[in-house]
Write a structure and sequence with these properties.
Length: 254
């Protein structure tokens, strides 16, 4: 309920419910803290007003109520962190789905766009190297590598299949960017020189916004992309069209 009040977008991923559950608990906890400390502040303002206590009392609080309250807060915070946040995070980050069941896509950020790199019909990514990067070869694919000849790149549009897990290998060409998809409850920094896996399982057809969540330069605001969750046949048609566009010679017939 508090999540809704704070304007959370609808969930479209399998693990999203768990994230929402934790957010909801945290919001309620913060509300209790806010009301509690706010009330304490107002009471203190009234009770210890200078007109009532013209002389300062150097002894201070005599009861142990605040010590107990603080201890309770620490216990709740520790249980939230150790009981909810850490296991949830561990499950999210460590249990990357197996290659056989998940779709693997490389997400490469640049100023100011996202390149989504598919392995193509052979299912193998071509070798990449910084020395191959040029305006006509933005991903730095090795022109000699056969595996890379059928690779497909989609600019600012990540197409995925509904219900199939997706592993994004997140990296960047220039500065630090971040893939953030509020609807999928995922976010990951894109760091030049490293490939960090980020995975989710889309469970709702539709088009969802990908936001760059790191201030990456003057055009940061315009770095908008979308995830399109579609059915298998629509996805196949999309990939086929890009394949024909990017490999018109038909060298990669399949
Ligand atoms: Cu960016």
């Amino acid at each position: 309920m508090l999540n809704k009040l704070m304007g959370i977008v609808p969930n479209a991923s399998e693990h999203g419910r768990a994230v929402e559950h934790m957010l909801e608990i945290c919001h309620w906890f913060m509300l209790v803290l806010f009301v509690g400390w706010g009330t304490f502040f107002l009471v203190a303002l009234y009770k210890f007003n200078q007109s009532k206590h013209p002389k300062a009392d150097y002894h201070g609080v005599r009861s142990h109520a605040s010590t107990h309250a603080e201890f309770a807060v620490i216990m709740i915070e520790a249980s939230l962190l150790l009981g909810f946040a850490v296991p949830l995070w561990g499950k999210r980050v460590l249990d990357v789905p197996d290659q056989s069941e998940a779709m693997r896509v490389r997400a490469i950020g640049e100023q100011y766009a996202w390149n989504f790199h598919y392995a193509g019909p052979d299912g193998v990514f071509g070798k990449q190297g910084a020395r191959f990067v040029s305006s006509s070869n933005p991903l730095g694919l090795d022109p000699e590598d056969e595996a890379g000849k059928d690779d497909i790149v989609s600019k600012n549009e990540l197409h995925v299949i509904n219900q199939q897990p997706v592993v994004l290998e997140v990296s960047s060409k220039d500065v630090i960017h971040a893939v953030s998809v509020p609807h999928m409850r995922i976010a990951q920094d894109a760091i030049p020189g490293s490939k960090v896996p980020l995975w989710f399982r889309p469970v709702k057809l539709g088009k969802y916004e990908i936001v760059c969540a790191q201030l990456c330069g003057a055009g940061h605001y315009a770095m908008r992309s979308h995830i399109i969750v579609e059915k298998q046949d629509e996805f196949d048609a999309f990939l086929k069209e890009l394949n024909q566009m990017q490999h018109p010679a038909g060298a990669v017939a399949k």
